Every structure is written in C-alpha cells, then in structure tokens.
Amino acid sequence: MINRAVIVGRLVRDPVLRKTTSGASVTSFTVAVDRKFKAEGQPTADFIQCTSWNKVADNVAKYMKKGFLIGVEGRLQTRSYENKDGKKQIICELVAESTAFLEQKDNRNTALQSDESVGGYKYTTDTTNSLPQEQQSGYSENYGYGNDGLDIASDDLPF
C-alpha cells in the first residue's frame, strides 16, 4: 500500500504552533492549491489542511507566513471527533513529513535578480544568461549552421 501526497501552494494564514503535554511541537496550517481545470461555478483552488510535528513543525512556524509558497510532502490521514453539537466530524489532512520553502509572495520579482547564499554556496537566481562574457562570445544565434540557418526541404517534414 502507498500513502504519499505532494502539494505545492500558498499558505492561507500564518501557521499555528502548539505544544503537546509531552512537549512535542505540532503546527497546523492550510495550503491553497490551484486547480488545473476550472469548471464554471467551481472554486479555483483547493484548501488542504496540513499538520506537521516536531522539527518540521518548528521550522514551518518559525519561517513561514501567510502568502508564502510552500511544498509539502507527507501522508494523508483521516481522523474524527465530535463537534460542539455532538455530531461526528471526519477530517482528512496531510501530515507533513517534509516541507520546502519555495518563495515569498511579496518577493517573487526581487528574488529573480538577487544573489542568494545557501550552505556556503553562492548562486544567482537571475533568469538571464549567466555565462561570463568570454564564454558567451563562442555562441551565436545560428548555432553553427551558417548564416542561412537550417536547409530543410519540404519533403523532409513529417507532415
């Protein structure tokens, strides 16, 4: 049997960190995940309830805020409880075993031009060509096929 789920979406609100009586950390949060196909009259996103424990819970509560893009990997879990009216409620939630902090909603554009440093390694998240100028000069628009481009006859095309 396999019970794995991976979602990527934005946090709906700030995560809530609590401690159990034994001292374990538990964080609850909701992730809004866009639907690929949007039917008429249907919501454009699903709101997935997530729970994380211990170190993962501490990291989510410490570093994540409303609007941040997050990746969550874990397992689906169903539990039930009685609400205030005495009715049985069933909840299906994603128990996060790992999370990935992808980007902040308010820093999407500025992150593309900034230099980052992670684990002692510096990398640039700029989407432009990052080759040094002396290496860029070896490349040309025609990719080595001369100035006329590719010479393809109409008989060579499969359609």
UniProtKB/TrEMBL annotation:
Keywords: DNA-binding. CDD domains: SSB_OBF (cd04496). Pfam families: SSB. One of its GO terms (biological process) is DNA replication. It comes from the Bacteria. One of its GO terms (molecular function) is single-stranded DNA binding. InterPro entries: NA-bd_OB-fold (IPR012340), Primosome_PriB/ssb (IPR000424), ssDNA-bd (IPR011344). GO terms for cellular component: nucleoid. Residues 124-140 have a biased composition (Polar residues). Residues 117-159 are annotated as: Disordered. Gene3D superfamilies: Nucleic acid-binding proteins (2.40.50.140). Homotetramer. This is Single-stranded DNA-binding protein. It comes from Amedibacillus dolichus DSM 3991.
